[in-house]
Each structure stands twice: as structure tokens, then as C-alpha cells.
Design a protein that fits this description.
One of its GO terms (molecular function) is oxidoreductase activity, acting on NAD(P)H. With 347 residues, the chain is α/β, with parallel strands linked by helices. 29% of the residues lie in helices and 24% in strands.
């Protein structure tokens, strides 16, 4: 069996180690084998390295956001071809699909084909954030996602994005705006200009109490809020108080939090986003995979049009596998001011 270089974690809490004996996969009929060019570091890599939660085998190959080039396609692939650039959110915790190695697999229908208006680096910042917010807004919030070429009039309705200055919040704002909604987003006061630059109509302070946030949102929106998207996964109390002041007949609350226990008030439809289950043969895994296949073609159109654009990022000074180890440590120590990318290999 052919082998390749990459990073592994031997067990929970073990350091990332560079090895050269990772099995190299062969694509199935609807899969592509891709070469990992860039990765973006997210909190989930640190979490999985420390706990081994979400891994399916040990030693584990990790990673989430990627930018890659197609090397080989399966016999039934129609969208992807050799030489295409792709990006996305990998099948988390599944070694053959993880980008912290020279090559890995993608399911053709779940990967984004990069359009010419963005660079490989820019695309690497987008996969996890776009999918996560699409599930929060489109799937969990029952919001219709229009085709990129459709003319969408602005509604006199609002979506509230909690955690608007983060990567997921950035894409939540853009997706909500693409669907025709006005957006009020929470952030620290110092980041309000960043949130407005992402497309929000209004920003409010997440440093205020939940009651104060609810009052501020009501003054901004007039209570015309049907969906609160907690992209931070840390603000359910504020979200519920905002919806308590809403005049909407149907009220939705979506969150990235699937760890903490809390009580959902009557009359609120709650949805927990779990894109980490993409590609798994479980009920939730099949749900995530089926919805992803529906979302990706439409989202690709919005990326190509520019409706959805990348977040600010920095590329780590060094490149390669040892540099990735150093970059993860740098990120875990809280030193990254922007989305942090690492160049792993040249084309």
C-alpha cells in the first residue's frame, strides 16, 4: 500500500507528530483524491487533539477547512476533474478524508469547486463557515436559499446573528442578506465596523446583559425577528430573550452548541448544527450529508457571484508539515488575530 506524509495524533492529549506512513487512499466512484495545498486552523482541531472526541480511529489525522487540487476522480464523477481546485469542510475525524496529510478524499457532491473570482487561499477560509451558517439559517431556520442569479427583494424582516465578528458569523450575515433579510449582529463594540463591513444592517454589543441585548434588538428591528442564529454557541440566553420580544408567528433558534444543557422556551423551534457528522453512517450523519448535497451547488453560485466572500486571514510564515505543528500551537495560544492559514504543499 502506498503511504504518504502528514500529521497524526496517537491518542487524546498527545502532540501532533509528523509521520510518513499514512495510507494513501483510492477514490471510490463518486469521490476524488485531492492534494492538500492550504489548511485553515479552527478550534475543532485543538479540541480533537486534546480529547480525541469526533475521531473515528487512532492514530487520528485531523483538519477541517481545506484548499486542494484534484489529482484523480472516481468512475462516476461528473462535476470534478483532474486539475480542479476545491475547498470545503472535510468529513471530520475520518482519516481518509482529513486534510492534514499529502492527499485525502472528498465526496464529489459535498466539495465546493473553486470559482475564478477567489484565490486558493481565500477559498480555504470559507468551507466550514459557509456550511455551518447554511445549516443554521437555511436548514435550522427554514429560510429559502435563492439561486445566485435570482433577484431577491429585501424583506421587512430580520435575522439576528449572535457572534457576528467570527468566521461563522461573517458567513451567517452574508447568507441572511443573500436571502433578502435584514441582519442585526452581536459583537464586541470594537468589532462593530467589521460586522457592518460583512453586510449587517446593525450591530449591537454582546457585552451587554441578555435583557439589554433583547431590548436593543427590539429597538432596531421593531420585534420583526423570526430567527436567531447563535453562531457563537454561547448565547442561548440572549437568543431566547430576543425571541421573547419577537412579533413573528414562527420563531426559530439555531445554534452551534450541542454540548451544554439548557431549556428551550415553549414556542421556539430549536436546531443544533452538527456539520462534524458529515459523511457518517448515522441518522444525523445522513441528514447532514443529504442537506449538504442540496446546499453546495447553490452556495457555489453565490461564491462565484461574490455574494459570499472570504474572511480576513493571515498565512503562517513557514510552510510544510512542521510549520503546521507550529501554527497549531501558535493558534492554541491565542496569538492569531485573523483566520490562520498554513501552506502545506505547492501545486
Amino acid at each position: 500500500m502506498a503511504t504518504q506524509k502528514g500529521l497524526v495524533v496517537e491518542k487524546a492529549g498527545a502532540p501532533f507528530t509528523v509521520v510518513d506512513n499514512i495510507p494513501r487512499s483510492k477514490p471510490g466512484p463518486k469521490q476524488a483524491l485531492v492534494k492538500s495545498l492550504f489548511v485553515a486552523i479552527n478550534p475543532v482541531e485543538v479540541f480533537m487533539q486534546q480529547t480525541a472526541i469526533l475521531t473515528t480511529a487512532l492514530p487520528a489525522v485531523l483538519g477541517s477547512d481545506f484548499g486542494a487540487i484534484v489529482l484523480e476522480t472516481g468512475s462516476e464523477c461528473k462535476k470534478l476533474h483532474k486539475g480542479d481546485y476545491v475547498f470545503g469542510s472535510c468529513n471530520l475525524g475520518q482519516n481518509a478524508y482529513s486534510p492534514f496529510q499529502e492527499t485525502f478524499l472528498v465526496d464529489e457532491d459535498a466539495a465546493f469547486r473553486k470559482s475564478g473570482n477567489i484565490s486558493v487561499e481565500e477559498s480555504t477560509t470559507m468551507g466550514v463557515g459557509i456550511l455551518t451558517s447554511s445549516f443554521g439559517i437555511i436548514v435550522g431556520g427554514k429560510v429559502a436559499l435563492p439561486d445566485a442569479e435570482a433577484t431577491v427583494p429585501e424583506r421587512d424582516e430580520w435575522i439576528v446573528v449572535l457572534g457576528g465578528s467570527g468566521t461563522v458569523g461573517h458567513f451567517g450575515i452574508q447568507i441572511a442578506r443573500a436571502c433578502g433579510y435584514k441582519v442585526a449582529a452581536s459583537c464586541s463594540p470594537a468589532k462593530s465596523s467589521k460586522v457592518l463591513a460583512s453586510g449587517a444592517n446593525a450591530a449591537f454589543s454582546n457585552r451587554a446583559s441578555p435583557d439589554e441585548q433583547a431590548a436593543e434588538v427590539k429597538s432596531i428591528t421593531g420585534g420583526k425577528v423570526g430567527l436567531v442564529w447563535d453562531s457563537s454557541g454561547q448565547a442561548h440566553e440572549a437568543g431566547f430573550k430576543i425571541l421573547a420580544e419577537s412579533t413573528a408567528q414562527a420563531k426559530y433558534f439555531s445554534t452551534t452548541d450541542n454540548v451544554n444543557n439548557y431549556t428551550v422556551p415553549p414556542g421556539i423551534n430549536e436546531y443544533q448544527v452538527r456539520i462534524g457528522m458529515l459523511g457518517r453512517d448515522t441518522d444525523i450523519g445522513r441528514h447532514i450529508s443529504e442537506e449538504t448535497v442540496k446546499l453546495v451547488p447553490v452556495l457555489e453560485g453565490h461564491v462565484a457571484k461574490g455574494t459570499l466572500g472570504p474572511v480576513e486571514f493571515d498565512v503562517f510564515d513557514e510552510s510544510g508539515w512542521e510549520a503546521l505543528v507550529d501554527a497549531i500551537k501558535y493558534y492554541a495560544e491565542g496569538k492569531a488575530a485573523k483566520k490562520l492559514l498554513v501552506r502545506l504543499q505547492a501545486v
